[in-house]
């Protein structure tokens, strides 16, 4: 609950203050190298060419300037020991003319005192600074920037809390940016990982930037550090430009204001003790700069830049702010005050200040990053310039979340109030979800809608609202859960995850299915889904089918989930939520593998692309077939409606014959009035069918093993009927290959135990072919069917492998060949000692075939042989994999 509150606060501040922070951040970054840029834009003005004869002394320079501008009063002059740096003077404003209260700053040639030209680019940086400080909108803008700066502090701290990784001491969890992510995960990666990189800079910039935003904050800093307040500080305004590169110097980072150093920290300003006792208006003698300058040189021990603030009014003292040759930072100025006789009235050195006053004297350079030298300035600039990244990614994540939440609400509203068909006294199917962004919630409601439309009562609830005993009370449950970050539960489900870890056994009567959402780019792909699956199994629950893992929103995996929903509902014909993008293949050949069998006919089907080369796939992958209705069924519908199958209709934006649309659609049970187009518009497409691939690309064709199915009226099933009876050789088949990484095989050097029955031999055959092709011969096949005489599929091939040593062991279970029924799980139990020995050698166990009967029986035998924890450990190590249906 606390995390949810912080999350709401984070996104609320992000979408309100994010745009302002982006503007202030970019302008701050642009100001980082203002002096360097102005130098580059103004050669011959801010910089000069070194000349023989040396630099003019300050007194000679002042005399030249006064001679060149006799009508102006010079109030300050800045000189440098750098022979390529122009001098700078401040001229008092003329009565009735502009120039500001501080006067006009001009650059002069330090070799002859000539006035140099105007500075190009200065207006741009002044405008940029105004936007940076107050959005160029006066006091209102200043308040907006100040509030946004406070928001930045809260955003930084809440962001740190929200992304706190499970493995706190793992630096990669904090700082590693993985650009392999896609979609929302990629946006989150940019937002969170780069946000962690720049978080210290944002906190520093914000905490120092508030110095210029709020008087109370500035006063509190002075009080906390024990620093006397400067005599004059214009709120939000710049300090005197003492010994700095030029006027309008800015600061990076998302905060208002500019340097503003107090005088006692060496930033110039009029010294408090610098007044003489001469009555106001009395005549005074001009200070002898030529005599005082050697005193400064001796007292200072040398300098890099120095600003002489010439006395005004009745003052008879000279204030010189200067930087030594190796200052602590660019604002670490010292201040020397001399009276007319050359006596030192005051000498304040930055290095001698108390720590608190040093801190206050370093506010600007901390804010800009220059406190840490050039690397700090560059890093702060980069951090400031990437501020829009967080506004953009934050908004995109927010809008994506809103969209998915809206989709989840729409899916919930679409759930029928009551089942279409009576469900009798069946207990409702519990559909529980754990969602971070809304995707899992939407899929849960869609799943519930599909089941309820098929006549099953359902109950939908967030996982966070369920106690373990509430789950134990259900008879059947579907879980749709996402994984957040490094294998963690979504925020709302963290409480359930803690309760889950502490719960005892008590789920023996629960049958369940689980859809796990994740991102394969993360190391702990679908980590929470895997943890939930393991918890359900170890507490006695029985899976209805193997866990389905979805990478992003992989439509193939979602269609696989829909296929399982269809089997659960008993209909088997639920329309696809996302239509597959099929490719055109050709039916090359098919043959019956079990002629004379007491079971249904099983066919070996071979296909190849209609155009282009054979694509690549791996053993364990699956094909999705777009089936078609048989010609007789299509003609029966046409006859019932009295329509011509060749009539042109528009379907999916294309004009096609009505007969083709009927062939690819769920056929209507009732008559549709209105003609051919009305009938076409009423049709829903046939759902796909899935089959394990029984070959490898080296075979030169894609092969399947398909058993015919029969409906209650003895008609053939849609998918098996199309591939084994209705389609003719050479006919086009709609097909796509779907990767099934959860059933990809191990390295050929690892021993492998392959267990299956019936058409499950298809997936096992592909693995055996791949291993033999790769040189792996430690293979053990356990296969079961009805009769050896008729149902030993690929007998010649398998026995040839055994004879050649490519199949180290073969155990067969033909259940009808003896009085006592013997199944593949019985052969496995009888070979328990050998199974344990193979597992000790690192063997992997792969199971393919019937979900009902064989697969759970094999699972139970393994549990009896090695124990449930060991079975779970094998599954976690991907040494126990299943493809069951």
Automatic annotation (TrEMBL):
Residues 580-746 form the FAD-binding FR-type domain. InterPro entries: FAD-bd_FR_type (IPR017927), Flavdoxin-like (IPR001094), Flavodoxin/NO_synth (IPR008254), Flavoprot_Pyr_Nucl_cyt_Rdtase (IPR001709), Flavoprotein-like_sf (IPR029039), FNR_nucleotide-bd (IPR039261), OxRdtase_FAD/NAD-bd (IPR001433), PepSY-ass_TM (IPR005625). The chain crosses the membrane at residues 12-33, 144-162, 192-214, 377-399. Signal peptide: none annotated. The keyword Signal does not apply. One of its GO terms (molecular function) is oxidoreductase activity. SUPFAM superfamilies: Ferredoxin reductase-like, C-terminal NADP-linked domain, Flavoproteins, Riboflavin synthase domain-like. Residues 252-265 have a biased composition (Low complexity). Residues 266-276 have a biased composition (Gly residues). Keywords: Electron transport, Flavoprotein, FMN, Membrane, Transmembrane, Transmembrane helix, Transport. Residues 429-566 form the Flavodoxin-like domain. Residues 228-282 are annotated as: Disordered. PANTHER family: BLL7967 PROTEIN, IRON-REGULATED INNER MEMBRANE PROTEIN-RELATED. This is Sulfite reductase (NADPH) flavoprotein alpha-component. It comes from Aquabacter spiritensis.
């Amino acid at each position: 609950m606390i995390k949810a509150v912080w999350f709401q606060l984070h996104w609320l501040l992000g979408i309100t203050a994010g745009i302002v922070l982006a503007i202030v951040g970019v302008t701050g970054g642009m100001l980082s190298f203002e002096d360097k840029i102005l130098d580059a834009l103004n050669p011959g003005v801010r910089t000069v060419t070194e000349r023989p004869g040396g630099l003019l002394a300050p007194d000679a320079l002042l005399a030249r300037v006064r001679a060149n501008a006799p009508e102006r009063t010079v109030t300050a002059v800045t000189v440098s020991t750098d022979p390529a740096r122009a001098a700078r003077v401040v001229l008092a404003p003329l009565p009735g003319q502009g120039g500001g209260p501080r006067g006009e700053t001009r650059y002069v040639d330090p070799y002859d005192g000539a006035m140099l030209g105007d500075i190009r680019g200065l207006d741009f940086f002044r405008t940029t600074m105004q936007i940076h400080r107050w959005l160029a909108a006066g006091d209102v803008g200043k308040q907006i920037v100040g509030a946004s700066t406070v928001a930045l502090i809260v955003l930084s701290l809440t962001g740190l809390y929200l992304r706190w990784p499970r493995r706190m001491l793992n630096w990669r969890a904090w700082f590693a940016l993985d650009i392999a992510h896609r979609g929302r995960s990629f946006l989150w990666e940019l937002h969170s990982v780069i946000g962690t990189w720049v978080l210290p800079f944002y906190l520093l910039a914000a905490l120092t930037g508030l110095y210029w935003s709020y008087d109370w904050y500035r006063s509190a800093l002075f009080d906390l550090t024990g620093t006397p307040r400067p005599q004059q500080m214009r709120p939000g305004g710049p300090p005197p430009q003492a010994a700095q590169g030029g006027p309008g110097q800015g600061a990076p980072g998302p905060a208002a204001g500019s340097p503003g150093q107090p005088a006692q920290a060496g930033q110039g300003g009029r010294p408090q003790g610098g007044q003489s006792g001469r009555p106001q208006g009395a005549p005074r003698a001009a200070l002898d700069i030529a005599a005082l300058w050697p005193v400064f040189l001796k007292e200072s021990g040398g300098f890099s830049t120095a600003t002489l603030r010439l006395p005004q009014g009745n003052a008879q003292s000279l204030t010189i702010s200067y930087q030594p040759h190796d200052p602590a930072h660019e604002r670490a100025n010292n201040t020397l005050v001399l009276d007319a006789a050359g006596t030192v009235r005051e000498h304040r050195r930055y290095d001698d200040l108390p720590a608190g006053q040093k801190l206050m004297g370093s506010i600007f350079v901390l804010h800009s990053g220059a406190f840490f030298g050039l690397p700090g300035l560059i890093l702060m600039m980069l951090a400031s310039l990437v501020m829009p990244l967080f506004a953009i990614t934050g908004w995109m994540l927010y809008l994506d979340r809103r969209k998915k939440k809206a989709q989840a609400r729409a899916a919930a509203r679409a759930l029928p109030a009551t089942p279409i068909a009576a469900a009798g006294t069946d207990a409702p199917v519990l559909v529980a979800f754990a969602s971070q962004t809304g995707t899992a919630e939407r899929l849960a409601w869609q799943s519930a809608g599909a089941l309820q439309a098929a006549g099953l009562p359902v109950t939908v609830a967030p996982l966070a609202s369920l106690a373990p005993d509430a789950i134990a009370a259900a008879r059947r449950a579907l879980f749709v859960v996402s994984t957040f970050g490094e294998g963690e539960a979504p925020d709302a489900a963290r409480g359930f995850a803690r309760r889950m870890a502490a719960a005892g056994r008590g789920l023996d009567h629960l049958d369940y299915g689980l859809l796990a959402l994740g991102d394969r780019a993360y190391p702990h792909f679908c980590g929470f889904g895997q943890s939930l699956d393991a918890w359900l199994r170890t507490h006695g629950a029985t899976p209805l089918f193997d866990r389905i893992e979805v990478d992003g929103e992989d439509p193939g995996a979602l269609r696989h989930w829909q296929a399982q929903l269809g089997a659960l509902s008993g209909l088997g014909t639920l329309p696809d939520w996302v239509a597959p993008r099929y490719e055109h293949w050709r039916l090359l050949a098919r043959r019956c593998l079990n002629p004379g069998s007491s079971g249904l006919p099983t066919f070996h089907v071979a296909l190849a692309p209609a155009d282009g080369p054979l694509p690549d796939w791996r053993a364990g992958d699956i094909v999705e077939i777009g089936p078609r209705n048989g010609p007789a069924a299509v003609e029966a519908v046409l006859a019932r409606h009295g329509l011509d199958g060749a009539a042109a209709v528009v379907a999916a934006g294309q004009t096609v014959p009505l007969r083709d649309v009927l062939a690819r659609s769920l056929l209507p049970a009732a008559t549709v009035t209105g003609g051919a187009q009305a009938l076409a518009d009423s049709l829903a497409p046939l759902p796909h069918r899935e089959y394990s691939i029984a070959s490898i690309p080296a075979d030169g064709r894609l092969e399947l093993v398909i058993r015919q199915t029969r409906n209650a009226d003895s008609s053939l099933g849609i998918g098996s009927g199309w591939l084994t009876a209705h389609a003719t050789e050479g006919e086009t088949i709609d097909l796509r290959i779907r990767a099934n990484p959860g059933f990809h095989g191990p390295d050929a050097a690892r021993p492998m135990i392959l267990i299956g029955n019936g058409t499950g031999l298809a997936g096992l055959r592909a693995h055996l072919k791949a291993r033999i092709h790769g040189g792996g011969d430690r293979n053990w096949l356990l296969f079961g069917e009805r009769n050896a005489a008729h149902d030993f599929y690929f007998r010649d091939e398998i026995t040839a492998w055994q004879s050649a040593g490519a199949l180290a062991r073969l155990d067969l279970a033909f259940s009808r060949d003896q009085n006592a029924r013997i199944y593949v799980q019985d052969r496995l139990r009888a070979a328990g000692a050998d199974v344990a020995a193979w597992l000790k050698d690192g063997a992997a166990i792969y199971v393919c075939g019937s979900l009902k009967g064989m697969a759970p029986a094999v699972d139970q035998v393994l549990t009896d042989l090695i124990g449930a924890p060991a079975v779970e450990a094998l599954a976690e190590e991907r040494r126990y994999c299943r493809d069951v249906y």
